Amino acid sequence: MTCDEAEVLIHALIDGELDAGHARDVEAHVAGCARCAARFSAWRDLRDAMPVRGLRHAAPASLRSRIERAVPSPAKTDRRALLKGFVAGGALSALDGVTPERLNVGGLLARVKQGVDEVILAMNATVEGQTTAHYLTDQLSDFDVKVTRLAHGVPVGGELDYLDEGTLAAALKSRTAF
Ligand SMILES: [Zn+2]
After folding, report:
1. How many CB atoms lie under 10 A from the CB of residue 80?
2. What are the φ and ψ backbone dihedral angles of 143, each rounded to 5 degrees?
3. CA 119 to CA 86: how far, in whole Å?
4. Positive or negative, the Cα torsion across 125, 127, 133, 134?
5. How far is the C-alpha of 112 from the C-alpha of 106, rounded, in Å?
6. Residue 96: what pLDDT?
7. Nearest 5°: phi and psi at 64?
8. How far away, in angstroms, is 36 Cα from ligand 1 center?
9. Fewer CB near the last or first residue (10 Å), C or N of the chain?
10. What pLDDT does residue 32 have?
11. Containing H/E element for 68?
12. Which residues contact 168 (CB under 8 A, 6 or more apart)?
C-alpha cells in the first residue's frame, strides 16, 4: 500500500467504515510508516476533539427536507425484473414458517406443463435459497425440462483477498471455460 492509498483509507479507518481486510492493510502500513502514523494520530486526535467541543450539529429538519426536495431521487430499478420470467413466492424456511404449500409451486408446474425449455433457479445463496432450489428441482424431476441455477462465486468488482473460503470454493466449483 502506498502513502497516497493509505491517506484515503485512514479517514475511513478512523470513522470505522473499513472492512477487516482493508483495516488490517492500513494498520500495517501505518505501523511501518512514520509519516502516515503522524497523519493517523493527528486525524484521530481531531476526531476525538470534536464531540468534546460540541462541534457536531444536526441539520434542522427544515434544511434537511429542502435538500431532499432539491436532490433528485435515483430511479429505483427492480433487479428481479432482469429475471423477467416466472417468480415463485419466497423461499422455504422452517424457522419463518414458509412451507412448500406456501411457495407458488403449483403455478410453476402448470407453466412447465405448457412447455418450457429451461427453468432457471435464481435463488439467494442462503440455506433457505438452496433448500428451495433442491425442493423445486425435486418437484421438476418428472418433467422433461432443463433445470439450471445461477452460478455462485466472486461478485463483480469483488477482490479475492476479501472473499470467505466458502465463496471461493463455490467459485472454483462453478468455474467455466475461458
Ligand atoms: Zn505512508
Report:
1. 9
2. -100, 150
3. 9
4. positive
5. 10
6. 61
7. -60, -45
8. 4
9. C
10. 94
11. helix 61-70
12. 153, 154, 160
Cell reading at 174: 462453478
Residue type at position 176: T
Domain spans in the chain, listed from the N-terminal domain onward? 3-49, 77-154+161-173
Question: Which residues have C-beta under 5 Å from ligand 1, the single-atom ion?
Answer: 3, 6, 33, 36
Distance 4 CA to ligand 1 centre (A): 7
Helix (H, G, I), strand (E, B) or coil at 118: strand
Quote the CA–CA distance of 134 and 127 in Å, as a whole number. Answer: 11
Tell whether the model's pLDDT for residue 109 goes beyond 60: yes
The Cα–Cα gap between 178 and 173 comes to: 14
22 C-alpha to ligand 1 centroid (Å):
15
Q: Residue 29: what pLDDT?
A: 94
> Which of 3.30.1830.10, 3.40.1360.10, 1.10.540.10, 3.40.50.261 would CATH assign to domain 77-154+161-173?
3.40.1360.10
Nearest by Cα to 99 from 111, 108, 107, 90 = 90
Distance 38 CA to ligand 1 centre (A): 9
